[in-house]
Write a structure and sequence with these properties.
- The structure holds two protein chains of two kinds.
- By secondary structure, chain A is α/β, with parallel strands linked by helices.
- Chain A has helices spanning about 30-40, 70-80, 90-110, 120-130; strands at about 20-25, 55-60, 85.
- The N and C termini of chain A lie far apart (about 35 Å).
- In chain B, the strands form three sheets. In chain B, strands 2, 4, 5, 6, 8, 9, 10, 11, 13, 14 and 15 form an eleven-stranded antiparallel sheet that branches. In chain B, strands 1-12 form a two-stranded antiparallel ribbon.
- In chain B, strand 5 (about 135-145) and strand 6 form a beta hairpin.
- The chains are: A alpha/beta, B alpha+beta.
- The interface of A and B includes residues 30, 32, 60 and 61 of A.
- Chain A: Pfam families: CENP-M.
Chain lengths: ~130, ~350
């Protein structure tokens, strides 16, 4: 399901399936997208932050078009204890790899990978980034 | 030099697949530590920058200073020059002149007349530096010589370029011997001459020229820093130019603010005089964006800032700068040197 901001409209609440993973997209070329994500985060239930939220930063291939400073994004990832993934949508290889990565994360968050829970995976990602 | 930009963006894209965290602050050693995901100073602006006070250039040559102002300079970053000696400038000028003549013979140079050929002059500008540790700036000028009469010949300046380094401490401390660090290069004139001069320097001193682009993030820093500068006379308005991407018809938005209003706004935002933080820049820009949104219902933060013009200087994201005030020249050069150094590393 794709939404431009949160909260989701309440009319379709009863038709919506269970949400296992929320990926917030931040376009590095648009400060507006960061502000939008920051505003939407307030509407997310706190239980999601136990491994079911990630930040996907797009447009990182072009250094010279960057309008968002990286410190703000890193701080977001730290404040909300969620991983920050970088990708470039213009390159097909990276697009496909990122999609596969997100799909794998979704499988874990939906509980379809035996022995690995969303929280465990989140801790793994955090520890590997800190080394 | 022309191919540099394409290669640069390709390596940036490849950098995404690297998952090694690496050093945030640029350093000569490039040690790995927690921070960014890329090997470069990606989108990382320092938390705060120092604002240098306006410099009164009494001992500087006013004619030379005036020569630098009100001209459009294209920016390049230059890696350190090997075995460059500022005392051998006359020899270098002679060698460059020979090189240009050879290129002209090969038919590669732009021939705009001038039977006596191109004359090269190289001089050192000692006043354009941050401190005594910075190497003196080097000015290269190409003039076209044509004979007016049998005895006299006329010289017309066709191209100028200068290397400079203002407060390049980051790069200077780890520099091995025999290297001269002049990371910023500014060129005014035909692109073909820039290419010829650049290739001569690259061959002779084993350095690398790259076009220096300015990201929208750095442009917002410039807008904030230059708005805060005190100018005596009537100055031009603070003008910001935005382009809106992904539209069938490209849209350009120009936002002009009265300089005194802009300065008043900046004065309410800035807390410590002489220092600017990222938060202050963000708040300043946010105020301007929300004011615009209130009137036009357009989110400027979703567009791309491409040009900033103030009374001090104007900068374009393609790496083009124009200096308008001589007292703030060093301050602007300091910021540009910092950007050039972060592009080299």
């Amino acid at each position: 399901h794709l939404a431009s901001s949160l909260p989701l409209p309440s009319e379709r609440d009863h038709l919506r399936p269970r949400i296992d993973l929320i990926a917030f997209l931040i376009d590095i070329k648009s400060k507006y997208s960061l502000k939008n994500v920051q505003a939407s985060l307030a509407y997310v239930d706190v239980r999601f932050f136990l491994g079911k939220v990630c930040f996907l930063v797009t447009g990182v291939g072009r250094v010279n078009n960057c309008s968002v400073e990286m410190n703000a994004i890193w701080k977001l990832g730290e404040d909300y204890c969620s991983p920050v993934i970088f990708c470039e949508l213009e390159l097909e290889g990276i697009r496909v790899a990122t999609a596969q990565r997100l799909l794998r994360m979704l499988q874990i968050c939906a509980g379809r990978v035996p022995g690995v829970s969303a929280l465990y995976f989140n801790l793994l990602m955090k520890n590997s980034a800190g080394d | 030099m022309a191919g540099g930009r394409a290669a640069g963006s390709a390596t940036e894209m490849e950098g995404v697949t690297r998952t090694l965290p690496s050093s945030g602050r640029p350093s000569g050693t490039g040690r790995l530590s927690r921070g960014l995901l890329f090997g470069r100073n990606y989108g990382l602006s320092p938390g705060s920058r120092l604002l240098p006070p306006p410099r009164c250039q009494e001992n500087a040559d006013p004619q030379k200073m005036a020569f630098l102002l009100r001209k459009q300079w294209t920016l390049y970053s230059v890696s350190p020059l090997y075995k460059f000696s500022s005392s051998a400038l006359k020899d270098y000028a002679r060698m460059l002149g020979v090189f240009i003549a050879a290129e002209k013979q090969k038919g590669l140079a732009v021939d705009v007349g001038g039977e006596l050929g191109v004359k090269v002059a190289m001089s050192s500008m000692t006043e354009l530096r941050g401190s005594e540790q910075d190497p003196a700036a080097v000015l290269v000028q190409l003039s076209l010589r044509s004979s007016v009469s049998r005895k006299t010949s006329e010289e017309k300046l066709i191209w100028s370029g200068w290397f400079c380094c203002v407060a390049g401490d980051d790069l200077l401390e780890n520099l091995p011997q025999d290297f001269t660090c002049l990371p910023l290069f500014l060129a005014n004139g035909a692109e073909s001459y820039t290419a010829i001069v650049g290739s001569w320097f690259q061959k002779t001193f084993d350095c690398c020229f790259r076009r220096l682009a300015i990201s929208p993030l750095n442009l917002t820093w410039m807008a904030a820093m230059w708005t805060g500068c005190k100018v005596d006379k009537n100055t031009a308005a603070v003008e910001l130019l935005f382009t809106v991407p992904h539209l069938p018809q490209p849209l350009d938005i120009s936002y002009a603010i009265h300089p005194e209003d802009a300065k008043a706004l900046w004065d309410t935002v800035q807390k410590t005089p002489g220092e600017i933080t990222q938060e202050e820049v963000d708040v300043f820009m946010e105020c301007l964006y929300s004011h615009f949104h209130r009137h036009f219902k357009i989110h400027l933060s979703a567009t791309k800032l491409v040009k900033v013009s103030t009374g001090i200087a104007s900068a374009h994201c393609d790496g083009i700068i124009k200096f308008l005030q001589s007292q703030y020249l060093i301050g602007v050069l300091m910021l540009l040197t910092e950007l050039a150094i972060s592009q080299i590393q």
